[in-house]
Amino acid sequence: MYFSGKFFKFCANKIKGFAFTAYKDMKIFVLGPAGCGKSSFVKHFSEYLREMDLDVKCVNLDPATDPIFDANIDIRRFVKTEDIMKRFKLGINGALIKSMEESLKYVENLDLYGDYILYDTPGQMEIFIYSQSGVKMVERLSDQTTLGLFLIDSTLVADAESFLSAIMQNAIVSLRLSIPTATIITKSDIADIDVERMKEEISKKDTALAGLLEKTTHFIEYTTLSQRIVKISSLKKSGFSDVYSLINEMFCACGDVS
User: What is the reported pTM?
Assistant: First the structure.
């Protein structure tokens, strides 16, 4: 992986004990299953970043849904799933897949520049990450400071099995898209997930499934930094400072900068 001189200057300053300076020119793909809060995160996190006078751009990659945030570029300017359904006489799932294929033709229009570029990915995560078009889109938009934030709805991971299955999903996403990803637990104002308690519950189970789960807890290390999982609430706008620290930390090997 190529790293710019600015990257090494950032790490050098950290090592020397200089004040924290955020790494910029980041492209961030916001990923996760339907209903996890991707669009709300893009809306409120972009507002948080702009309050620090950062140059933030938002891009809607979902051809089936109008964005709830102010999008600098909206893929629906070029491709709309409802039009694809009529044009090719397809059902909704076929139209979603075809929409991704058509969207790839306009990828050059989606490549913006700024301190932070937030890409809101399609609501149906599987359509995006398991289609060649979605993978190619990420590949063509990515550079040396591209990362993914995998959002998990806290209300859907109340037990250890559900929690770990979500973490494993994150690892698969990272492998499919070939970008580093971090885990963000959303809606923490509704349900608070105790990660350490979840891991302890897994270790105490006696079933064969528990043995499998315990052996796969290392997946957390591939989807977080030092097993640090950030919790946020877009509604209360809490946890965004932790996300900000995390995404800058992901491109510096000089230690925790949170």
Answer: 0.83
